[in-house]
Amino acid sequence: QGAPWLSVSPPLRLSAGDGCGHTLLTPHSGTLSSKNYPGTYPNHTACRWRLRAPPGTSLLLAFGDVDLEASERCAHSSLLLADPQAGTTYGPFCRNAVPAAPLLLTNSSAVTVLFNSTSHRSGRGLLLSYATSQHPGTHYAQEHVSVYCPAGCKDIDGDIWGNPNQGYRDTSVLCKAAVHAGVIADELGGQVTLAREKGITLYESAFANGLRSKRGSLSEKRLIFHKACHLLLPACGDVLEVAAFNASSWWHEVDALGQDRAWVADRAALGTTGHSWAAEPGSDSAWLELDLGARRNVTGIITKGSSEQYDYYVMSYRVSSSRDGKNWRAYRGSGGQEDKVFDGNADSRGEVSNAFIPPIVARYIR
Question: Which string of DSSP letters, residue by residue, matches 222-290?
């Protein structure tokens, strides 16, 4: 309120006001949020962002999160989008008047985003991303978009339905779903490319990258995230073959009938029927080692418990890698100062995925 407003020509973008939070705006995509997001936004603030796309293009807006305290006609807190070229507005939006769809395709190259708050008690505020309809070298139609997601989306409120293989229900919180899919690290955020394809009848839940998605019903559209592969390492979605398994120890079980059962390292391959690998009971610092046969680009791991018959599973684990089998490096993730602890399984039946961002380049994985 009372902040100066400047009129500029593309591709510069501006924000003004005391209610502006994390803002990263570039000529072809960006993200913006209210102050303190995802914490409660402050009282009596205002922010205005003006988005301008290059001439001949239009803006596609993605509502990552809109959680403004409910009030009649959104009088206490509101998000309003104004299209000056067409003379139209979208909103006002608040908790009892949310956007009808997570994606909004405008026919304008300029949109003004207005956020205002008065006295209120609750609400995360807003998270909004945008992209232009044409990116250098890439065309983004209504069903394809590239947006920037800020760090910290894993902990915001809001649900996601689906999994990385099926895709996600289009009502899912977009950037939170991107973390679940493993296309960005929550600590860093980053650019996300996705497509809106035809919805499916049922979305199955999954635990991946520290997040549990929900089981959801039919939707008109679904979100499909695209993993960006390095030009020198294009096969980022392939399943890697394991040349050999090794382990710190293994369990030699003698069951109630006196029969021997060897829980050796070779039984650790995902999809093995019957019992799996298990360390010797009571052993400390147990490890399982995978020899990939050659130096490979490892972008993630899937773990599963032993089986329904043998109800054993690993709840958390660390990862180390080596190029020669002698010198080992602990995985710390995106600029972390401590070894990363991955969330494992909560039962012996379901599969759990964890992405390595950045990827691990190594022959041996522990």
Answer: EEEEEPPPBTTB--TTSPPPPSEEEES--EEEE-TTS-EEEE-GGGGSTT-SS----PPTT-SS--EEE
| Residue-wise pLDDT tens digits, 211-251 | 999 999 998 888 999 876 543 344 566 789 999 999 999 99
Cβ-contact 124, 157 below 8 angstroms: yes
Is residue 177 helix, strand or coil? helix
What is the enclosing helix (H) or strand (E) of 8? none
Give start-end residues of each CATH 2.60.120.290 domain in the chain: 15-132
**DSSP assignment letter at 228:** P
- pTM, to two decimals: 0.63
N- to C-terminal Cα distance for the chain?
56
What is the sign of the dihedral through the CA atoms of 331, 334, 338 and 342? negative
CB-based contact 311:275 (threshold 8 Å): no
Return d(Cα 298, Cα 86) in angstroms, integer.
49
Q: Please tell me the CATH superfamily of domain 244-365, with its number.
A: Galactose-binding domain-like (2.60.120.260)
Rounded to 10 degrees, the C-alpha dihedral 95/101/102/105 comes to -130
Residue ranges of alpha helices (H) inside 172-239 are: 174-181
Joined together, the tokens standing for residue 214 give: 């929900």
305 pLDDT exceeds 50?
yes
